[in-house]
Amino acid sequence: METILEVLPAAGRSRRNRQWPDELKARIVAETLVPGATVNGVARRHGLPANHVSSWRTMARKGRLVLPAPEGPVEFAALILGPGADPPAAAPLSADRVEIAMGAAIIRLEAGASADRIASVAHALTAGA
Fold it and tell me: What backbone phi and psi angles, to 5 degrees, belong to 16?
């Protein structure tokens, strides 16, 4: 049987919202990313409403909450952009070729790239920023 802990406010004091440190929020969110873990299960284990944990996950996705480094081995996914074709050895930049510079990275898209392609690359670059 699971024990339920109920916290009652002290006499004369109204209920106050708890302030959770970002480090604790990040550790709790990281627990939800473990294979097989659920937001409800993690929230229940920490005595939190599931919607709090869900909103913290959203903060992490938007880069407003930095998650701790994974404890286990890090896995990488392959990145496949499309059918492979050997680019020209020294293709000169032309007026119809798009170049996106972000910090030290420069992304050069194929000549005649569609607006959708340019938008998806720009969105992917700013998603992590």
Answer: -110, 145
Structure tokens at 26: 């990040």
pLDDT of 49 reads 93
Q: Beta-carbon neighbour count of residue 64 at 10 Å?
A: 10
Residue 10 lies in a domain: no
CA dihedral sign, ordered 120, 121, 124, 126: negative
The secondary structure of residue 64, as a DSSP letter, is S
52 in Cβ contact with 43 (< 8 Å): yes
Mean pLDDT value of segment 3-13: 59
pTM: 0.45
The residue segments making up the domain with residue 37 are: 22-61
What's the total number of domains in the chain? 2
Half-sphere exposure of 107 (CA within 13 A, CB side): 15
27 is a domain residue = yes
Is the residue at 104 inside a domain?
A: yes
The CA distance from 94 to 111, in Å, is 8
Nearest to 99 by CA among 129, 122, 80, 83: 122
Residue 16 lies in a domain: no
